[in-house]
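Hey, quick one: can you model this chain's 3D structure?
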Amino acid sequence: MGLTSDEMKNIAVELGLPKFAGTQMAEWIYHKHVGDISEMTNISKANREKLAESFEVGCAAPIDAQHSKDGTIKYLFPVSTTNEGNVGKFVETVFIPEENNRATLCVSSQVGCKMNCLFCQTGKQGFEGNLTANDILNQIYSLPERDQLTNIVFMGQGEPMDNLDNVLRATEILTADYGWAWSPKRITVSSVGVRNKLRRFLEESECHVAISLHSPLPEQRAKLMPAERGMGIADVVELLRNYDFSHQRRLSFEYIVFGGVNDSTAHAKEIVRLLSGLECRVNLIRFHQIPNVPLHGADEKKMEELRDYLTSHGIFTTIRASRGQDIYAACGLLSTSKKIGAVRK
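Sure thing. Here's the predicted structure for all 345 residues.
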């Protein structure tokens, strides 16, 4: 898992198997979701044994699950390996059932995160490694509710653009005919804005894009999000203006609303100025308190006033429902820093 069909064909040839065995392997893994090479029954037993000497499917079930009163489930997945060679790490993945038979999975792309946003628990964990495409896909492959999924969002632990090669490989396999064959419109990838990487993602992927905004004021955004100093929000928006979001591909801006910090009419006016003429939507998000951070959430009236102002000025804006807060699965709360050696039995 995590290899392309062509790579599996090359492996087959290297091992002395017929080339079409690579196509068979891809079908068994990505279409039939087998857990072991021995289950690939249209490959001869001798060839399966030869293949198993050097390879495995690479799936690993979650080792813990926490259930929210609202139906959200947070899973703890072991990380088989990272690009840095770390072992014994974990990531959290959140399954969010919704109305009308919709179900979203929030997947992680890194163990921890380098971005160190003030309001995010994952950033407090620090960076512990990039996930491979295998470990990204395993969060979907080994999910008990896998067949219920309608959407995937790369909004879990980590900055997807900081692990772009593996994120692109994972989304390629999710959308390829030999893979899951999902429409890229079922996948949203988030980013704070990483110079050069965001442009590459926009060029090489057709998935939806979600930009972490949180303040339209560069100086304030830099205090909340150090990544502003690397690629400012003005540069991010200027780059986005070069791409077409007027058809099926969607662009959204995520905006956590902090009481008395970024919820004023002045902020609303600056958001309108910043995003003027850009085909996009804004998702307002409630802030979930984390330890030792001097921020608090805005009240409901402020959230609604901000939504109504933006909507009345031509920017489609919604207040995102908060899910899984009681199990620390809501936005900004994911962390596995204390899970190592202390996984619940």
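One thing worth noting: The longest helix spans residues 300-312.
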